[in-house]
Amino acid sequence: MARRGDRPLGHPGACADVTALLGYAVWVVLAVAMLALSAASQVASRGRSVVARPATVLARLASDPWLRVPLVVGWAWVGWHLFAR
Amino acid sequence: MPADAHGTRVGGPLVVVGLVVSAGYAVAAAWTTPFTWGANLITAIPIAAVAIGAAVLWPARPDKPSALVRDGRARPRHPYLGWVVLLAAVVGWELAEYLWRGSRGAHPTLSSMVDAFDAHTVGKAVAFFAWLWLGAAIVRSGTPGRVRT
Protein backbone atom coordinates (compact mmCIF):
# COMPACT_ATOMS: atom_id res chain seq x y z
CA MET A 1 0.00 0.00 0.00
CA ALA A 2 1.42 3.33 -0.97
CA ARG A 3 2.17 5.88 1.68
CA ARG A 4 0.47 9.21 1.88
CA GLY A 5 3.93 10.65 1.43
CA ASP A 6 3.89 9.23 -2.08
CA ARG A 7 1.15 11.59 -3.15
CA PRO A 8 2.17 13.41 -6.28
CA LEU A 9 3.46 16.88 -5.80
CA GLY A 10 1.12 19.58 -6.96
CA HIS A 11 1.96 22.66 -8.89
CA PRO A 12 3.67 24.70 -6.23
CA GLY A 13 2.66 28.29 -6.35
CA ALA A 14 3.43 31.14 -4.05
CA CYS A 15 0.86 29.98 -1.50
CA ALA A 16 2.27 26.45 -1.50
CA ASP A 17 5.77 27.86 -1.09
CA VAL A 18 4.75 29.85 1.95
CA THR A 19 2.93 26.84 3.39
CA ALA A 20 5.96 24.62 2.83
CA LEU A 21 8.21 27.24 4.38
CA LEU A 22 5.99 27.33 7.44
CA GLY A 23 6.00 23.54 7.64
CA TYR A 24 9.77 23.31 7.45
CA ALA A 25 10.13 26.17 9.92
CA VAL A 26 8.08 24.30 12.52
CA TRP A 27 10.19 21.17 11.98
CA VAL A 28 13.33 23.24 12.48
CA VAL A 29 11.93 24.70 15.71
CA LEU A 30 11.13 21.19 16.95
CA ALA A 31 14.62 20.00 16.06
CA VAL A 32 16.16 22.94 17.90
CA ALA A 33 13.94 22.19 20.90
CA MET A 34 15.22 18.61 20.90
CA LEU A 35 18.82 19.80 20.82
CA ALA A 36 18.09 22.27 23.61
CA LEU A 37 16.56 19.53 25.75
CA SER A 38 19.56 17.30 25.11
CA ALA A 39 21.87 20.13 26.11
CA ALA A 40 19.80 20.93 29.20
CA SER A 41 19.93 17.29 30.23
CA GLN A 42 23.72 17.56 30.43
CA VAL A 43 23.53 20.51 32.81
CA ALA A 44 23.36 19.31 36.39
CA SER A 45 21.63 21.27 39.12
CA ARG A 46 22.78 20.27 42.62
CA GLY A 47 24.16 17.06 41.23
CA ARG A 48 21.02 16.23 39.28
CA SER A 49 19.94 17.08 35.78
CA VAL A 50 16.69 19.03 35.68
CA VAL A 51 15.89 17.32 32.39
CA ALA A 52 16.32 13.57 32.01
CA ARG A 53 19.04 12.50 29.62
CA PRO A 54 17.93 10.74 26.42
CA ALA A 55 19.54 7.49 27.59
CA THR A 56 17.67 7.76 30.89
CA VAL A 57 14.41 8.31 29.05
CA LEU A 58 15.13 5.21 26.98
CA ALA A 59 15.95 3.20 30.10
CA ARG A 60 12.74 4.41 31.73
CA LEU A 61 10.67 3.32 28.73
CA ALA A 62 12.46 -0.02 28.31
CA SER A 63 12.10 -0.89 32.00
CA ASP A 64 8.39 -0.17 32.18
CA PRO A 65 6.27 -3.32 31.74
CA TRP A 66 3.73 -1.45 29.59
CA LEU A 67 5.69 1.27 27.83
CA ARG A 68 8.37 -1.10 26.57
CA VAL A 69 5.88 -2.79 24.24
CA PRO A 70 4.98 0.33 22.22
CA LEU A 71 8.66 1.30 22.35
CA VAL A 72 9.73 -1.83 20.48
CA VAL A 73 6.68 -1.86 18.22
CA GLY A 74 7.23 1.80 17.37
CA TRP A 75 10.87 1.22 16.55
CA ALA A 76 9.94 -1.74 14.33
CA TRP A 77 7.20 0.22 12.60
CA VAL A 78 9.54 3.13 11.83
CA GLY A 79 12.04 0.77 10.20
CA TRP A 80 9.40 -1.03 8.21
CA HIS A 81 7.78 2.23 7.13
CA LEU A 82 11.01 3.89 6.07
CA PHE A 83 13.00 1.04 4.55
CA ALA A 84 10.61 -1.71 3.47
CA ARG A 85 7.44 0.17 2.51
CA MET B 1 27.49 1.07 20.29
CA PRO B 2 25.12 2.95 22.48
CA ALA B 3 26.06 4.27 25.84
CA ASP B 4 23.94 3.28 28.80
CA ALA B 5 21.93 5.63 30.97
CA HIS B 6 25.07 7.05 32.55
CA GLY B 7 27.19 7.25 29.47
CA THR B 8 29.20 4.13 30.32
CA ARG B 9 30.43 2.60 27.12
CA VAL B 10 30.82 -1.06 26.45
CA GLY B 11 34.36 -1.67 25.34
CA GLY B 12 36.18 -4.49 23.71
CA PRO B 13 36.43 -6.11 20.34
CA LEU B 14 32.77 -7.07 20.42
CA VAL B 15 31.81 -3.44 19.99
CA VAL B 16 34.11 -3.01 17.02
CA VAL B 17 32.77 -6.18 15.42
CA GLY B 18 29.21 -5.01 16.06
CA LEU B 19 29.90 -1.63 14.51
CA VAL B 20 31.53 -3.12 11.42
CA VAL B 21 28.79 -5.70 10.93
CA SER B 22 26.07 -3.08 11.45
CA ALA B 23 27.73 -0.69 9.02
CA GLY B 24 28.07 -3.41 6.40
CA TYR B 25 24.49 -4.45 6.93
CA ALA B 26 23.31 -0.85 6.58
CA VAL B 27 25.25 -0.45 3.33
CA ALA B 28 23.67 -3.66 2.00
CA ALA B 29 20.24 -2.39 3.05
CA ALA B 30 20.88 0.90 1.25
CA TRP B 31 21.04 -0.96 -2.07
CA THR B 32 17.59 -2.51 -1.66
CA THR B 33 14.43 -1.04 -3.12
CA PRO B 34 11.26 -0.60 -1.02
CA PHE B 35 8.33 -2.87 -1.83
CA THR B 36 10.65 -5.75 -2.80
CA TRP B 37 11.39 -9.04 -1.06
CA GLY B 38 14.97 -7.95 -0.54
CA ALA B 39 13.93 -4.81 1.34
CA ASN B 40 11.36 -6.74 3.35
CA LEU B 41 13.85 -9.39 4.37
CA ILE B 42 16.73 -7.07 5.23
CA THR B 43 14.39 -4.94 7.36
CA ALA B 44 12.65 -7.90 8.98
CA ILE B 45 15.86 -9.53 10.23
CA PRO B 46 16.82 -6.71 12.68
CA ILE B 47 13.19 -6.45 13.80
CA ALA B 48 13.19 -10.17 14.60
CA ALA B 49 16.58 -9.86 16.30
CA VAL B 50 15.41 -7.05 18.57
CA ALA B 51 12.16 -8.84 19.35
CA ILE B 52 14.05 -12.02 20.25
CA GLY B 53 16.66 -10.05 22.19
CA ALA B 54 13.97 -8.28 24.19
CA ALA B 55 12.10 -11.53 24.85
CA VAL B 56 15.25 -13.33 26.00
CA LEU B 57 17.14 -10.59 27.83
CA TRP B 58 14.37 -8.54 29.37
CA PRO B 59 12.82 -9.73 32.63
CA ALA B 60 9.10 -10.47 32.66
CA ARG B 61 8.70 -8.15 35.65
CA PRO B 62 11.33 -5.49 35.32
CA ASP B 63 12.77 -3.60 38.25
CA LYS B 64 13.59 0.03 37.90
CA PRO B 65 17.15 0.52 36.66
CA SER B 66 19.50 1.85 39.30
CA ALA B 67 19.54 5.17 37.50
CA LEU B 68 15.84 5.54 38.22
CA VAL B 69 15.77 4.40 41.83
CA ARG B 70 15.46 7.09 44.49
CA ASP B 71 18.62 7.45 46.49
CA GLY B 72 17.57 10.13 48.95
CA ARG B 73 19.01 13.03 47.01
CA ALA B 74 16.76 15.82 45.77
CA ARG B 75 15.38 14.96 42.35
CA PRO B 76 13.79 17.20 39.74
CA ARG B 77 10.02 17.06 39.96
CA HIS B 78 9.33 16.37 36.32
CA PRO B 79 12.52 15.27 34.54
CA TYR B 80 10.54 13.74 31.67
CA LEU B 81 8.06 16.57 31.15
CA GLY B 82 10.11 18.34 28.49
CA TRP B 83 10.48 15.16 26.46
CA VAL B 84 6.79 14.34 26.76
CA VAL B 85 5.83 17.82 25.56
CA LEU B 86 8.30 17.60 22.67
CA LEU B 87 6.98 14.19 21.64
CA ALA B 88 3.41 15.48 21.76
CA ALA B 89 4.37 18.47 19.61
CA VAL B 90 6.16 16.27 17.06
CA VAL B 91 3.27 13.80 16.84
CA GLY B 92 0.75 16.64 16.65
CA TRP B 93 2.57 18.48 13.86
CA GLU B 94 3.20 15.22 11.97
CA LEU B 95 -0.51 14.43 12.07
CA ALA B 96 -1.46 17.97 11.09
CA GLU B 97 0.86 17.92 8.08
CA TYR B 98 -0.20 14.38 7.15
CA LEU B 99 -3.92 15.14 7.24
CA TRP B 100 -3.76 18.61 5.70
CA ARG B 101 -5.24 18.73 2.21
CA GLY B 102 -2.70 19.56 -0.41
CA SER B 103 0.52 18.32 -1.83
CA ARG B 104 3.20 16.67 0.27
CA GLY B 105 5.62 19.29 -1.01
CA ALA B 106 3.58 21.98 0.71
CA HIS B 107 3.06 19.92 3.87
CA PRO B 108 6.28 18.05 4.67
CA THR B 109 6.08 15.15 7.09
CA LEU B 110 8.90 13.32 8.81
CA SER B 111 8.42 10.50 6.31
CA SER B 112 8.69 12.75 3.29
CA MET B 113 11.80 14.43 4.67
CA VAL B 114 13.44 11.09 5.44
CA ASP B 115 12.42 9.84 2.00
CA ALA B 116 14.30 12.75 0.46
CA PHE B 117 17.30 11.85 2.62
CA ASP B 118 16.92 8.17 1.72
CA ALA B 119 16.89 8.92 -1.98
CA HIS B 120 20.67 8.77 -1.92
CA THR B 121 22.40 5.50 -1.11
CA VAL B 122 24.70 7.09 1.46
CA GLY B 123 21.80 8.79 3.18
CA LYS B 124 19.82 5.56 3.33
CA ALA B 125 22.84 3.68 4.73
CA VAL B 126 23.27 6.32 7.44
CA ALA B 127 19.56 6.25 8.30
CA PHE B 128 19.50 2.45 8.42
CA PHE B 129 22.61 2.38 10.61
CA ALA B 130 21.00 4.87 13.00
CA TRP B 131 17.89 2.70 13.13
CA LEU B 132 19.99 -0.39 13.92
CA TRP B 133 21.85 1.55 16.59
CA LEU B 134 18.59 2.63 18.20
CA GLY B 135 17.33 -0.95 18.22
CA ALA B 136 20.50 -2.11 19.97
CA ALA B 137 20.17 0.75 22.46
CA ILE B 138 16.58 -0.22 23.24
CA VAL B 139 17.53 -3.83 23.95
CA ARG B 140 20.49 -2.78 26.09
CA SER B 141 18.42 -0.26 28.03
CA GLY B 142 15.94 -2.88 29.15
CA THR B 143 18.54 -5.52 30.01
CA PRO B 144 19.20 -5.81 33.76
CA GLY B 145 22.76 -5.16 34.81
CA ARG B 146 23.46 -3.10 31.71
CA VAL B 147 22.59 0.21 33.33
CA ARG B 148 25.43 1.09 35.62
CA THR B 149 25.85 3.98 38.00
What does it look like?
The complex is a heterodimer of chains A (85) and B (149). Chain A is mainly α and 85 residues long. Chain A is built from three helices and two strands, in the order H-E-E-H-H. A two-stranded antiparallel ribbon of chain A has the order 1-2. In chain A, a hairpin with a 2-residue loop joins strand 1 (44-45) and strand 2. Chain A is flat and about 50 Å long. In chain A, 24% of the residues are buried. The model of chain A has no long low-confidence stretch (mean pLDDT 84). The model of chain B is unreliable at 1-8 (pLDDT under 50). By secondary structure, chain B is mainly alpha-helical. Chain B has one domain. In chain B, 23% of the residues are buried. The interface between A and B is large, with 56 and 69 residues.
In short:
In chain A, β1 (44-45) and β2 form a beta hairpin.
Can you tag this structure with a few keywords?
heterodimer, A: 85 residues, mainly alpha, two-stranded antiparallel sheet, 65% helix, B: 149 residues, 5 helices, 59% helix
The portion of residues forming beta strands of chain B comes to under 5%
Order of helices and strands of chain A: HEEHH
Low-confidence parts of chain A: none
Largest interface: A-B, 56 and 69 residues
SSE string of chain B: HHHHH
What structural class do the secondary elements of chain A suggest? mainly alpha
- The CA-CA distance between the termini of chain B, in Å, is 18 Å
**What proportion of the residues of chain A form beta strands (DSSP E)?**
under 5%
Q: What is the first-to-last residue Cα distance of chain A?
A: 8 Å
Residue-averaged pLDDT of chain B, rounded?
84
Structural category of chain B? mainly alpha
Number of domain units of chain A: 1
Tell me the number of helical segments of chain A per DSSP (H or I, 4 or more residues long). Answer: 3
Largest sheet of chain A: 2 strands, antiparallel
Q: Ranges of chain B with pLDDT <50 over ≥5 residues?
A: 1-8
Number of helices of chain B: 5
